[in-house]
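Note to self: the last two entries modelled the partners one at a time, which told us nothing about the interface. This time every component goes in together.
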Amino acid sequence: MSKKVLVLADVRRQKLRNVTLEMIGAATRIADGGEVGVVILGKDIKALADGLGNYGVDVSYVVDSAELEHYNPSAYRKAFMEAVRDFEPSAILMAHSAVGRDFGPVMAARLGAGQVSDIVDIEGEGDDLRFVRPIYAGKAFTKVRIKQGTTIVTVRPNNLTPAEAGVGKAGTVKELAVSFEQPDLATMVREIVEKANTGVDLTEAKVIVSGGRGVKDASGFEPLKELADLLGAAVGASRGACDAGYCDYSLQIGQTGKVVTPDLYIACGISGAIQHLAGMSSSKVIVAINKDPEAPIFQVADYGIVGDLFEVVPMLTSEFKNVLADR
Amino acid sequence: MDILVLLKQTFDTEERITVENGKVKEDGVRFVINPYDEYAVEEAIRLKEEHDGTVTILSIGPSRTEEAIRTALAMGADEAVLADDESLFGDEYTAAKVLAAMVKVRNYDLIIGGNQAVDDGSGQVAVRLAEELGIPHISTLTKLEINGTEVVGHRDAEGDVEVVTATLPVLVTAQQGLNEPRYPSLIGIRKAGKKPLTHVTAADLRLSPEDLTARTEIVETYLPKPKEAGRILQGEMNDQVKELVHSLTNVEKVVG
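The predicted structure of the combined assembly is written out below.
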């Protein structure tokens, strides 16, 4: 039976993140011929609704308000509920991102709904859908179905096939006027501190250059950053590097930390503890650079170089420069 | 200040996972306090040391969970309540209903949990609980300050830090970096055995069958295909680097 599926656009710094198109693709499949709606929340974000019809979106709801400039659970809830009342979805999709990770459960509780978090695939069709998700940070997987009520899922970036342009629907845009007062503003963002390393977001990065204890100190990340800058990559780290104080915990990849699935993961001076492997071994291509040929990281690596990262990484950077310059 | 801490017992993160009869095998596994909940326990004890008050641990899980609870009590929590009645086990929806019923009979100013459990990793229960209770929440904190009733939390938002304010009562969840959990002292361990640990059942909590009906069902649990080890490149370092860059750009096509 066809369904109505509502997607919360994942907006960061007034731009739609790629995962939004991945969710629209999934929503189209789940809708099974039914309608797809997108909700865009934020400040000065109206233009983001332009052209979504061409990706298969039937209705875009826009709530443009100063109170939505930063994520605020209660203000988001009020705005999103307006769209829910109008659209009456039987399934809701959000990104498993800083916003969706928090806001999914808010809406799930509000609607008394089941939620499947952090899905990486969808199997089945029609009313018999199974959502595939990692447990133990990817050491195992489960397939989960929703038994009753509204379906809510949060989608891991970089895993589902994005919707493609060319669908050619007209797509209507509905601007909703929502006013916010207490208690819609029970929490307030006072300021945002942008950290130095946020050029490329870890969970959405196509390439990650990651350092472990082998970087030896904070300055040891410099050659990794140079390579990352060249490749448009994000910089990550192992727990060893974070615990040793070489970098901020926000860079940590592993079972405690972020789970990532980039196209290319370059592990530099990382031995490969089980809890780190859980967070990165689903990456498409893994490169390991380590002095110790017995390091467990080589068992999951597609390409391994046994050597000192301080020698190898700068050589890699310079070779990539040569090759990419010729293109 | 009266603080409630949400605690789950999980596998140690260095454990390998095996699946038997469609379920994750627990035999011989080392269990710990979920690492994110351990930050929550530590933060609660620090706040109590600073502001006075009580720290109560709330947990859902089988009787083995007592071991993790005793550790939290040995760290400095005052008492604990464990819902170990199997009819209370379900999914994230039912867990939030059960915890809400456990919370509603108590006085509290602050609830702290981990931002997710390292086993199922869904990160839903604490936020759902805040909604059930109708109180504000701030998730994934790397820093928490409380002055009177004013709460200031530093929230990890994909690398950025959002400085978020709210007023007690509030629920917060812990992110890595919030603090450095202490090891229980010998005196703490000795005292922990005498601290109250109450067990609650479905009858105690007076939940409706609707509240205890899971919304989701796990239909299959399986291990991923083992990743095959690739190639260790050989030869002069310069040639290895050239070969690697060639492979990544032209064969794998993941760069460029």
